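Reopening this ticket.

The earlier resolution said the output was attached, but the attachment link was broken on my side. Pasting everything inline this time so it's all in one place.
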Amino acid sequence: MLERLRPQNYNFFDLFDRHAEVAHNALKTFSEMLQTWPKSPELLERIVEAEHQCDSITHMTVDLMRRTYLTPFDRDEIRELISRMDDVIDNAQGAATRVVLFKIESIPEEVKKLSLTLTRAHEHVVSAVKMLRKVKKSEGAEELCREINSLENEGDDLLRKGLAALFTEVNDPIAIIKLKDILEMLERAVDCCEDVANVIEGIIIEHRG
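Inline output:
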């Protein structure tokens, strides 16, 4: 899947876009896994493979920085952007892996809703990342970033409700610990979308002119 992104055939924007695309497909797969659980644990393999692809793209981005004299943005901005993007899929994959390893019997509604919030936030990330190709004409990117910030607040609210439900509706202490861990990793993934939005806003302010 990464053949078209081999050296000499890609640039920074290709890598940003490809990372966002692979991660977004993984997030949608995770949401599908949660909605149909426990019928499709095999979907975890697709999520893990996507996380590995995103790691490869991150490494390719760093390698391209080493080989490129003139970069479209400051090197620290590029490194921060791809790192924050990678944090999203890392946390989502961690949550998905725990669902399977912990042998969760049923998925609470707040977990399902939080995964959908994550997917919606990341959809805006995908769109905002694409706008970086023409950063001086990136009207609308700020609005996308504000939407991501709003969804991060929604994620915080779902985390609070989810934790409250766990401690009032689940009797097994071990199950509470497992589900709490999954909820918090999902919420961190949404937080990471906001981190990406903040980096993008900074790049736009710095380079729009």
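Reporter confirms the inline version is readable. The domain at 3-207 is CATH 1.20.58.220 (Methane Monooxygenase Hydroxylase; Chain G, domain 1). The longest helix spans residues 173-207.
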